[in-house]
Design goal:
Blueprint lengths: L14 H19 L15 H5 L5 E2 L2 E2 H19 L6 H30 L4 H24 L5
Antiparallel strand pairs: 1-2
């Protein structure tokens, strides 16, 4: 059985991934910048944003988690945009996006557990970022599955 590479037909510019990554980047930048201003975090549907983002879990080795998220979303945007002008092959793009989105989804799952069962507070912005990362992961899984379908 011959494995096909991703064709241009099956890998049209990944607009959904780009849109989700841009949204995630905006959320992450907001959560990174707000603590450095005097403004409180505006929580959308819950009241736990401040307590979550001021907890010991809001940093990893002194780096704000939101900044790490912004870096992940920015990297995914750069990789996704590199596919269309053929700077990277579709298979390379899919592989890189898979690694980043898998890591982001697993870490988001851990942080969601911390919110629910340790802090007992929900940050609606964090939930939106976790949903965006998970949606990107699902879309990448679909691309990955298509790349391993046998050729007719």
């Amino acid at each position: 059985m011959k494995v096909q590479t991703l064709s241009s037909e099956s890998t049209r510019h990944p607009w959904a991934i780009i849109a989700l990554a841009a949204f995630g980047l905006a959320v992450s930048v907001y959560l990174t910048v707000v603590p450095y201003t005097s403004a409180p975090i505006i929580c959308l549907a819950t009241s736990g944003c401040e307590s979550v983002n001021q907890s010991v879990y809001a940093e990893l080795a002194g780096i704000p988690i939101a900044l790490l998220g912004a870096g992940a979303y920015l990297a995914m945007l750069a990789v996704a945009f590199a596919e269309k002008p053929r700077l990277l092959s579709p298979n390379t793009v899919t592989t890189i996006l898979f690694g980043i989105s898998l890591s982001g989804t697993l870490y988001s799952a851990y942080l969601t557990y911390v919110e629910l069962f340790v802090l007992r507070a929900i940050c609606s912005w964090c939930v939106l970022s976790a949903l965006a990362m998970t949606a990107i992961f699902v879309l990448v899984l679909i691309r990955l599955r298509r790349s391993f379908l046998p050729q007719p």
